[in-house]
């Protein structure tokens, strides 16, 4: 569209777009008026230490797409440039990229921030929310996002199997097709689309199905961090857990945890919170979840937020050993809370079994919940008799 309208298209090198200050200066010097970015790249640019508002003063339209939008960055952009607007763009390459848009400006930003939507389909494109049987879901009920219209591609080159799997016959309009995006979403009562994220970003934690993007949105809504990414990990015992990577090195982890514990069920609160200078990116500028999935976690990042205090007696040493085995955290401070280290009721049961087996003491789950700190639990158990098997 840019070339058809007589415009000049700028495609910059990876070295340039990964250097926020150089990229901003390039945008200004080249007189670029329409800017298209992934939210992650734009956040790097807008929040770089040497960012100057004048660098983007020539921009008329900012388009963000390819991943979940960062609401806080949109707000900052509009506060710096109140006469401009942002397009929240949604659409896979199979549907010629931008199929759904939401225009955000100073007048509707507050309502957008309170309920983030991707908007409405562009002319000649349609979007549906369908269940697994390809039945239309009413407004408010979630399902998979399907797209149809003249923007759909013919399919995948030399991949007939994939084409058949993702492009299906339209159940309502014979002769047309639908593309299964793999994204979960819903329609609002006002007819706008909400996108929850990839269906393959759903994971199971302790039997509960969890949408990682929902946790990410909660973290961002805290106002404590600029951007984040939550990934599913497995510890050495084979137990799944969540790790949150945040880009503010000065973030108060205790404060962030407190916010998440108030706003999320306990199984959705990440065990690990990792501070990074910036999130790793893939070649196309999106957050590299695969790289974060193998990032080596340290002690603090494993969940500990208390200053380390060593065990002072035999019982404390035994409890410390049991906790380290169950939690897969080394070392564990005797003043740290079991549940802040990623513990939960299933792991607590493993502690009870180990206490019964190794210490020959009977401990109930309610008692453990009352004394989730090694030092307190040790003092409590010291007053109890051994069971004597």
UniProtKB/TrEMBL annotation:
UniProtKB keywords: Phosphopantetheine, Phosphoprotein
Tree of life domain: Bacteria
GO cellular component terms, A-Z: cytosol
Pfam families in UniProt: AMP-binding, AMP-binding_C, PP-binding
SUPFAM superfamilies in the cross-refs: Acetyl-CoA synthetase-like, ACP-like
Alphabetized GO MF terms: phosphopantetheine binding
Essential cofactor(s): pantetheine 4'-phosphate
Domain spans labelled Carrier: 310-385
Record has Membrane as a keyword: no
Parts forming coiled coils: none
Keyword Phosphoprotein: yes
GO biological process: amino acid activation for nonribosomal peptide biosynthetic process; secondary metabolite biosynthetic process
Protein name per Swiss-Prot or TrEMBL: Tyrocidine synthetase-3
């Amino acid at each position: 569209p840019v070339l058809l309208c007589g415009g000049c298209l700028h495609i910059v090198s990876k070295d340039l777009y990964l250097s926020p200050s150089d990229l901003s200066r390039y945008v200004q010097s080249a007189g670029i008026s329409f800017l298209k970015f992934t939210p992650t790249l734009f956040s790097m640019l807008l929040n770089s230490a040497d960012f100057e508002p004048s660098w983007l003063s020539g921009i008329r339209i900012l388009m963000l797409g390819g991943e979940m939008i960062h609401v806080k960055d949109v707000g900052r952009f509009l506060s710096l440039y109140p006469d401009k607007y942002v397009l929240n763009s949604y659409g896979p390459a199979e549907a010629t990229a931008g199929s759904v848009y939401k225009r955000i400006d100073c007048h509707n930003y507050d309502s957008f921030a309170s309920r983030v939507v991707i908007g409405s389909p562009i002319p000649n494109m349609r979007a549906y929310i369908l269940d697994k049987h390809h039945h239309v879901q009413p407004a408010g009920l979630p399902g998979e996002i399907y797209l149809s219209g003249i923007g759909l591609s013919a399919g995948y080159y030399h991949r007939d199997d994939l084409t058949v799997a993702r492009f299906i016959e339209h159940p309502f309009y014979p002769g047309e097709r639908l593309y299964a995006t793999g994204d979960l979403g819903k329609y609002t009562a006002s007819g706008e689309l909400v996108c929850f994220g990839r269906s393959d970003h759903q994971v199971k934690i302790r039997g509960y199905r969890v949408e990682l993007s929902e946790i990410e949105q909660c973290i961002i809504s805290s106002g404590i961090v600029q951007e984040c990414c939550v990934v599913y990990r497995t510890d050495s015992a084979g137990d799944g857990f969540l790790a949150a990577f945040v880009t503010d090195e000065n973030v108060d982890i205790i404060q962030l945890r407190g916010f998440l514990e108030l706003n999320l069920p306990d199984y959705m609160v990440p065990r690990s919170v990792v501070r990074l200078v910036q999130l790793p990116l893939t070649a196309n500028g999106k957050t590299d979840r695969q790289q974060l999935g193998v990032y080596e976690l340290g002690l603090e990042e494993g969940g500990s937020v208390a200053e380390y205090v060593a065990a002072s007696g035999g019982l404390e040493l035994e409890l410390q050993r049991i906790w380290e085995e169950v939690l897969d955290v080394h070392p564990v401070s005797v003043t740290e809370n079991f549940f802040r280290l990623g513990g939960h009721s299933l792991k607590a049961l493993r502690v009870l079994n180990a206490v019964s087996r190794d210490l020959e003491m009977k401990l109930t789950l309610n008692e453990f919940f009352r004394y989730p700190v090694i030092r307190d639990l040790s003092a409590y158990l010291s007053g109890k008799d051994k069971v004597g098997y």
